[in-house]
Amino acid sequence: MTRIERLRQLRQAAMFTTESIPDAQAALVPTMFEAWTPGVSYALDDRRCYEDKLYKCRQAHTSQVGWEPDKTPAMWAVIDVTHAGTLEDPIPAAENMEYTEGIYYLDPQDGKTYLCTRSTGQPVTYLPHALVGTYFEEVA
C-alpha cells in the first residue's frame, strides 16, 4: 500500500467517525468537520463547517460561490443544539435557521431575546427582530 493510499484510508476513517456523531454532539465541535468549499458536490444530510457554525445539507447540489450555507436556506440549515432554548439559555439565532414555536432565541444583531410564537417550518433568511408580530415577540 502506498503512502497516498494509506492517507486516503485514514481520511475515510476520520470522515466515518465525524459522520457517525449525532447532531447534538457535532454542534459542539463544528470545526472538526470539513469546511464548506465551492465546487464540491454535497449530498443530503452532509455536514460542513462554515464561519465556525455547523450546517446540514438539505438538498443535494454542487456548491458555488454565492451559495454559501448562510446565504442558501433551501440548501443548508444551521445546527444548534447546544442551548436549551429557554429564557435563561436562548438559542443564538442565525440567518437561514428554522425557528420552533415556544423556543427562545437570542438575536445577535440587537442582543435581545425573542420568543418564537409560530414555527417557521423551514429555514428563513431573517433574524427574530425582523419577524416580530409574525413569528416572534420580544421578551428581554
Describe the structure.
This protein has 140 residues and is α+β, with helices and mostly antiparallel strands. The protein has 2 domains: 21-82, Seminal Fluid Protein  PDC-109 (Domain B) (Ribbon), CATH 2.10.10.20; 84-140, Seminal Fluid Protein  PDC-109 (Domain B), CATH 2.10.10. Helices cover 15% and strands 21% of the residues. The chain has helices at residues 3-19, 23-26, and strands at 41-42, 47-50, 53-57, 61-62, 76-79, 91-92, 104-106, 113-116, 136-138. A hairpin with a 6-residue loop joins β7 and β8 (113-116). The longest helix is centred in the N-terminal third of the chain and has 17 residues, at 3-19. The model has no long low-confidence stretch (mean pLDDT 88).
Question: What descriptors fit this protein?
Answer:
140 residues, Seminal Fluid Protein  PDC-109 (Domain B), elongated, alpha+beta, 4-stranded mixed beta sheet
CATH structural architecture of the largest domain: Ribbon
Instruction: Tell me about the largest β-sheet.
Output: 4 strands, mixed
Anisotropy-based shape: elongated
Domains (count): 2
The CATH homology group name of the largest domain: Carbohydrate-binding module superfamily 5/12
Rounded to the nearest angstrom, the radius of gyration is 17 Å
For the secondary structure, the number of strands is 9
